[in-house]
Amino acid sequence: MNGPLPNPAAALLAWRPCSLSARLARVGIWVVLAYLLVAVVTGPLVALGWLPDPGSGLDQPIYAAPGWSHWCGTDRLGRDVCVRTLSGAGVALQVVLLALLLALVVGVPLGMLSGYLGGPVDRLLVLLMDTLYTLPVLLLSVVLAFLLGRGLPNAAAALCVVYIPQYFRVVRNQTASVKAELYVEAAQSLGAGPVWILRRYLFRNVITSVPVVLTLNAADAVLVLGGLGFLGLGLPDSVPEWGSDLQEALTALPTGIWWTALYPGLAMFVLVLGLSFLGEGLDAWVSRDGRS
Fold first, then answer.
1. What is the DSSP letter of 64?
2. Which CATH number fits the domain that encloses residue 111?
């Protein structure tokens, strides 16, 4: 109970025997690491001029087919589809990571307080979070994005509000369960204060489930961000974003111009698949560790 917090990623890499869940999780880890590498490297390469500017292509042919000069072709403005797809990885990871970290910072403390205090505070918070949770994720994010306007911080804020209830529900239920344990009651009887109990016992027990929620929510958030971009409510047009690129590609698809939709769509699909594999593997590891 007083040892170091577990490291889910390291545990998955060392998981023996190698189950299907562990193998999928390892695939997910490598996929996410590859996208992180692309996100880190693409920006400096564009700034140095080694890659074309993803937001400018006025001096390039429009709708050029994939070839040596443009590996994934160009779009309706002559922008390089390959560079826009690579740059979109960094944009997606920035928005999703910022949104989920904000949701974690808000949802986890509220869930712990609600589960520990109970009473009117718990009922009020549960009512509020259940109301948000029942709303469709995309619909709620569309409304929030419309009210906040386009932009990276606004898109992150819209996604943040959507995922706060999920952290809250998981943490609140686990906190209420751990609160009933004998060692927590013993600490209370010995005069331990709420802050000490929350930090010493409850936090250590409920935090292990957060990485599972984080990775599964990340996969969903990539799709929601793409949906906002597809509807024109996400990021400005100058920012390379997969959803907006797919929306622009719709007009070109009937004419046989497939490359403007294929590559951003494939990039989104692979990232979502990798995050889903990682989340399912973490879930299996946490469940196995909880039974052992």
1. P
2. 1.10.3720.10
Q: Of 49, 81, 51, which is closest to residue 65 (Cα–Cα)?
A: 81
β-strand partners of 74:
80
270 is a domain residue: yes
5 inside domain: no
What distance in Å separates the CA atoms of residue 205 and residue 62, rounded to the nearest whole number? Answer: 56
How many domains does the chain contain in total? 1
Judged against a pLDDT cut of 60, whether residue 289 lies above it is answered with no
Q: Quick count: other Cβ atoms within 10 Å of Cβ 287?
A: 13
**Is it the case that residue 15 has pLDDT exceeding 50?**
no
Task: Kindly state the average pLDDT of the residues 91-117.
Answer: 92
Residue where the block lists tokens 């009020």: 124
Residues spanned by the domain of 135: 19-61+69-291
Distance CA(178)–CA(203), nearest Å, equals 10
Beta bridge partners of 80: 74
